[in-house]
Amino acid sequence: DRGKEAKYPTREMIDFTQIHINKLPRVLIMGRPNVGKSALFNRLIRRREALVYNTPTDHVTRDIREGVAKLGNLRFKVLDSAGIEAEASSGSVLSRTAEMTGNVLSKTQLALLLVDARDGVLPMDLDVGKWLRKNAPGMKTIVVMNKAESLDDCDGTLASAAGEAYRLGFGDPIALSAETGLGMAELHETLRPLLEEYVLQNNLCADEEVQDNDSSSEHMECKLPLQLAIVGRPNVGKSTLLNTILQEDRVLVGPEAGLTRDSIRAEFQYEGRTIYLVDTAGWLERTKQQEKGPASLSIMQSRKHLMRAHVIVLVLDAEEIANTRRSMKHVEVVIARRAVEEGRGLVVIVNKMDLLRGKENYKLYKSVTEAVPQEIQTVVPQVTGIPVVFVSALEGKSQIAVMNQVIETYEKWCLRLPTARLNRWLCKVMSRHSWKDQAAQPKIKYFTQVKARPPTFIAFMSGKTQLSDTDLRFLTRSLKEDFDLGGIPVRILQRTVE
Ligand code: GDP
Ligand code: GDP
């Protein structure tokens, strides 16, 4: 469906935003004059500022513009090659330019060779192709037929342009329009596997091997402001709990500039950490409505709101559980499941435990403390060990138990494990497990954490072997046990490598 501006997938495996700007892969835009290089460059960097290197040579200003491109989930450095183009098309050898372009080429991972789809492939385009092959042998080059917005698959104009583009010898071309944005999703789909491969091979996402006692990089991510949501049905004690948390010198201040104002209710400091309280007022009322009718837009929006939180605290009422013999109502089940599906950290608080004290309540007390963790496990079987804290918000110290658990969950959620350590672990784990027969043993080439928040891993499978659901469960369980990741959603994805 070329030509439609398709939606970019929202959840991606590799978080390009976590890569340092100087380490981003570099993509060079090449092509003869007027094919639309600047137009594509500008579209890719959008409003971001471009850095311009001015290299005046022989009275001609040759410049290479560099900017950070954002395309769907992808981020990369993009270079617009006015200087190279001039040299390539004129055939003149300007030593300074050659030197400069040599520098650029050696640091570039990919080239986009632009042609004008309406003109087809001209001799000058072939020259640019030849120049690239000579000066950057082996560089992955993608032919981009620009200005394709008015060409039509039906009358064959696009097909014939594509046919011509093969003459450049760089494989399948893609068609787009830098001016209208048509076909950018296809560019995304073409670039994605190439850039992801580069990121993985160069280990740009996973941290370098760090000493086990040096967790500075893990630390940094955990120091990012924690977005916390406290949810529960009316009267379970959310406000009371929140007031205890915010007591003393922890001053309640308004949202910081730059944050979406409607989603943050308060900012506070807890033991040197900044915590944003995500506003969830009205969420439950809307969820109740939803139980009756179809989901409206506003419900969807408020759900999205809640799911911005890193850690979700779900408050239950101990007295109610004791009276009704049911830990979770429908709405609470919905919240717990959603939180886990969305990869949030979940902490369950059972409040008003003071009402179940005393000898006469012993049985009730015991049954509540046993039933709640069991029921959570049934509700979200995919995450074992979701923490449950029993408190009384009316009494002092409850906030400490709650916040300690919140922070513990958040730190696990942020954890990053170095690739070398993971692969040593994998080796041990695989030998610990016995498969029915040798052939059934999955062949994992290597294993790496692609992102934190929540921890997400990729198993690179060699050849045609695949991890079965049982294998995935086994690996997830082992990861959680060995790295103390219980209670948070951990994801393992698999990829095939040759
Ligand atoms: P460069 O010399 O390769 O950097 O080309 P420019 O980006 O300056 O574009 C040359 C001309 O082509 C300008 O007039 C642009 O407006 C036009 N142009 C660029 N992209 C497109 C496109 O996708 N469709 C059409 N119709 N015109 C385009
Ligand atoms: P919210 O609607 O969830 O914000 O609930 P509130 O914080 O307003 O509390 C509802 C009622 O429960 C109030 O009367 C509180 O005093 C009471 N409450 C809250 N926490 C506790 C607790 O730990 N023990 C007891 N016994 N009552 C509590």
From TrEMBL:
Family under the similarity heading: Belongs to the TRAFAC class TrmE-Era-EngA-EngB-Septin-like GTPase superfamily. EngA (Der) GTPase family.
Keyword Lipid biosynthesis: no
Section of the entire sequence shown: 98 to 595 of 633
Annotated ranges, domain Guanylate kinase-like: 25-227
Key word Lipid metabolism present: no
Record's keyword terms, sorted: GTP-binding, Nucleotide-binding, Repeat, Ribosome biogenesis
Organism: Solanum bulbocastanum (Wild potato)
Domain of life: Eukaryota
MF term (GO), any: GTP binding
GO biological-process terms attached to the record: ribosome biogenesis
Record protein name field: GTPase Der
